[in-house]
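Run log // design_07
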């Protein structure tokens, strides 16, 4: 029986979706519960599947992103403005007005509440809608434009949100989760590029299915390199002493800089 395999675009689409969801997990310390993550997955999955379906019949970028954005709009409308939408899914004027009001409430809640924020419907719209757009950008960069390394920038933007608003920042665990998503995305693209090389002539280790042996050989080294780099990114900052607030001296009573003083710098979040 012939084995069913995903196409190159299919593998990249799946990797982009997983990377988005792993990146979204870094928001966990800022939001209460896990219900928000389920909503994010419900928003991301249909858009990814719609893009993959269009790519089966057309490689032109315009119909792909058009269908993806339309799918994202319909999904968000069905989730947050079902009663006001036409047929429960098509956003009419009332649905747009309802989502606009809900969006304003969500932004106000995020502004006033300290993390972890309660995952109300308004907050869910902000989070799911924002991460839906992040998923779209990652898919556009990694799959449509084949620039997976650049797709790490939207993932970094997601990570920077909790890293900047939490008083003590994010722990190494959540950094690792987000970094694994980026490594998965880059390795999926690299594996597809390596497959296009075929097999190495004269090397019996790669006399199997064309491209399969060399992919495992190179991917194995790449996985080890990625694991080492990720481990260093987590461990090295722990080993290097941090810079205390007293590093920057304050002003003395006479207006001159007080060298060696224990003055601290106060910042507002």
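design_07 sequence
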């Amino acid at each position: 029986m012939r084995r069913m395999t995903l196409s190159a675009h299919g593998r990249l689409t799946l990797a982009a979706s997983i990377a988005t969801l792993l990146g979204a997990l870094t928001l966990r310390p800022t939001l209460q519960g896990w219900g928000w993550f389920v909503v994010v997955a419900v928003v991301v999955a249909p858009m990814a599947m719609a893009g993959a379906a269009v790519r089966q019949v057309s490689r032109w970028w315009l119909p792909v992103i058009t269908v993806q954005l339309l799918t994202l709009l319909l999904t968000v409308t069905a989730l947050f403005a079902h009663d006001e939408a036409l047929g429960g899914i098509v956003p009419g004027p009332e649905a747009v007005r309802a989502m606009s009001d809900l969006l304003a409430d969500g932004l106000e809640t995020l502004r006033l509440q300290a993390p972890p924020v309660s995952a109300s419907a308004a907050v869910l719209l902000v989070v799911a809608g924002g991460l839906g757009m992040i998923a779209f950008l990652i898919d556009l960069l990694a799959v449509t434009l084949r620039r997976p390394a650049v797709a790490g920038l939207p993932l970094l933007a997601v990570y920077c949100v909790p890293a900047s608003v939490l008083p003590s920042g994010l722990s190494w665990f959540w950094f690792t989760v987000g970094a694994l998503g980026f490594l998965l995305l880059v390795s999926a693209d690299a594996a597809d590029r390596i497959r296009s090389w075929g097999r190495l002539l004269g090397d019996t280790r790669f006399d199997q299915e064309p491209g399969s042996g060399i992919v495992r050989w190179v991917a194995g080294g790449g996985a080890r390199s990625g694991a080492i780099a990720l481990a260093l990114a987590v461990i090295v900052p722990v080993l290097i002493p941090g810079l205390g607030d007293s590093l920057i001296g304050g002003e003395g009573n006479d207006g001159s800089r007080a060298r060696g003083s224990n003055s601290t710098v106060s910042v507002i979040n």
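Helices lie at 8-24, 35-55, 61-80, 93-112, 121-144, 152-165, 172-195, 212-239.
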